[in-house]
Specification:
Blueprint lengths: L3 E7 L3 E7 L5 E8 L11 E2 L1 H19 L6 E8 L5 E4 L9 E2 L7 H11 L5 H4 L8 H11 L3 H7 L2 E4 L1 H9 L9 E3 H4 L5 E2 L4 E2 L1 H7 L8 E3 L8 E2 L11 E7 H8 L8 E5 L3 E8 L10 E6 L7 E8 L3 H9 L10 H6 L8 E3 L17 E3 L7 H27 L6 E4 L6 H11 L3 E4 L4 H14 L5 H7 L2 E5 L5 H16 L8
Parallel strand pairs: 1-5, 5-14, 9-12, 15-21, 21-22
Antiparallel strand pairs: 1-2, 2-3, 4-7, 6-8, 10-11, 13-14, 15-16, 16-18, 17-18, 19-20, 22-23
Helix pairs in contact: 9-14, 10-12, 12-13
Length: 504
């Protein structure tokens, strides 16, 4: 009997496999980190083969730990770090180059050339996106230009492009023998190559980027009754399981938080930070530095769109305090350290390590710590790091309010950092609205599970998914409006100090 749904959550720093039951409860889980590769300042890479092998390993381990057979899984869904770009050989499965991660800024020169010819918003009307190093299209162009044999293979039809969910779907459904080359519409909407209206590759943009269409995957729905393929009984699940659901990780969290109505929003605190607002079946153009993307598409229904504010560095800032500065021994230590002081002592940290994403879109920015005095201790810096995450979210919420005309009344939150109670209180204080953590915090994997489960009828519809959602804890703002205004003004002054650091 097929009692469960499996979900691969392929994140920026680790790969997980989680098994859910009908109530959305976790029945099994395994996780494994993969290496972060930094060949040059601003460059970030992953080894695609390591991610594939990690995925296989955590699938086997989660089944074993839960005492569940692969044949008990009704379907498999995938959530993935978006924009991260892989180009591989269709015949062998060998990557032509490491995966270029969404954080990587190596395509800055390509993006500046594209912007010089038509402005940073030259493709925004069609794609919902500015020209920026964040997105996959310029990364793909870089591989075709810089990696020997890649362009020749692409012209012959021997090279495949994909984001991480496309890469894993291809391997899980047969790889070089019979792998299905698809990408879901949410990931395609983050490439800078997909037209938002018809949800297909835009031929004019492909020509501009010099990308052969034949190397691109077929764009499919996020939850697809037309199953893309099946896992092999000799594979990591040991069974023939349908692969039929995929979402970019932030859209997956939106689905996992059951934000199915226009006006509902969630914020995910992971390596980066991502605030998404459901805008319904009509894409809303942003005038204040946000991104317009596909939120999800269920079967043959019309796509649902969202506005998004993307922050490059959130949890990664805590990792930086730990790994680069040695201020803490583990990530969990940041909360008690920061709680030892009442405020940041006037210090601000702006983590523009790879430029600033929304709403600024400044690739020339670099990180800064400002407002330092002899009074400031490492505890103040720890608190400033947590405040930096919350301040960046405030920037996004303000832009979202201006674009949508709808004031935020509360914020659903998820991701690894929501275990930090102090951060959640800081967020409520600086936003001035309640912050709500759900009972099931693994919303990204849950959203991928929902996408796959809806495709095969494991869940009959959205109403059941709404009933699965339950509140765990709510933080109420305690900061005065005057104090909030002063803090936000100081943050804006600090952000301005990071601009124009990289020239040319």
């Amino acid at each position: 009997m097929e009692d469960y749904i499996g979900a691969l959550d392929l994140g920026t720093t680790s790969d997980r496999f989680i098994i859910f039951d009908h109530r959305g409860r976790i029945m099994g889980l395994d996780q494994r980190e993969h290496a972060q590769i930094f060949p040059r300042p601003g460059w970030v890479e992953h080894d695609p083969m390591e991610i594939r092998d990690n995925a296989y390993r955590v699938m086997r381990n989660a089944l074993q730990q839960a005492g569940i057979r692969g044949s008990q899984l009704a379907a498999l869904g995938i959530a993935n770090q978006r924009e991260t770009t892989v180009v591989w050989d269709r015949k062998t499965g060998r990557p032509f180059y490491n995966a270029i991660v969404w954080q990587c800024t190596r395509t800055d020169a390509i993006c500046r050339r594209l912007s010089a010819e038509g402005g940073q918003d030259r493709f925004r009307k069609r794609t919902g996106l500015p020209v920026a190093t964040y997105f996959s299209g310029p990364k793909l162009r870089w591989v075709l230009d810089e990696v020997p044999d890649a362009r020749a293979a692409a012209k012959l039809g021997d090279a495949c492009f994909g984001t991480i969910e496309s890469w894993l779907t291809w391997w899980l459904t047969g790889g070089p023998e019979s792998g299905t080359h698809v990408t879901d519409v949410t990931n395609a909407s983050r490439t800078l190559m997909m037209n938002l209206v018809d949800c297909d590759w835009d031929p004019e943009i492909l020509a501009c980027l010099e990308v052969p269409r034949r190397m691109l995957p077929r764009i499919v729905s996020s939850s697809d009754p037309e199953i893309w393929g099946y896992t092999s009984p000799s594979g990591p699940l040991g069974a023939r399981v349908p692969v039929c659901g995929a979402l970019g990780d932030q859209q997956a969290a939106l689905v996992g938080q059951a934000c199915f109505s226009p006006g509902e929003a969630k914020n995910t605190y992971g390596t980066g930070c991502f605030l998404l607002l459901n805008t319904g079946e009509t894409p809303v153009a942003s005038r204040h530095g946000l991104i317009t993307s596909v939120a999800y598409r269920l079967g043959g229904q019309a796509p649902v769109y969202c506005l998004e504010g993307s922050i490059a560095v959130a949890g990664a800032l805590v990792q930086w305090l730990r790994d680069n500065l040695g201020l803490i021994g583990t990530a969990a230590e940041v909360e008690p350290l920061a709680a030892g002081v009442e405020d940041s002592g006037g210090a601000y940290i702006v983590p523009a390590f790879s430029g600033l994403f929304a709403p600024y879109w400044r690739a020339d920015a670099r990180g800064a710590i400002v407002g330092l005095t002899r009074y400031v201790t490492k505890a103040h810096l720890a608190r400033a790091a947590l405040e930096a995450v919350a301040f960046q979210t405030c920037d996004i919420a303000s832009a979202m309010n201006q674009d949508s005309g709808v004031a935020l009344t509360h914020l659903k939150v998820d991701g690894g950092m929501v275990a930090n109670d102090l951060l959640m209180q800081i967020q409520a204080d600086l936003l001035g609205v309640p912050t709500i953590r759900p009972r099931i915090s693994e919303t990204t994997a849950l959203g991928a599970a929902y996408a796959a489960g809806l495709a095969v009828g494991f869940w009959p519809g959205l109403d059941e998914l709404r009933r699965n959602w339950a509140e765990d804890r709510t933080w109420i703002p305690q900061m005065s409006s005057d104090h909030r205004a002063i803090a936000l003004a100081g943050w804006q002054k600090a952000v301005a100090r990071t601009f124009d650091w990289v020239e040319g």
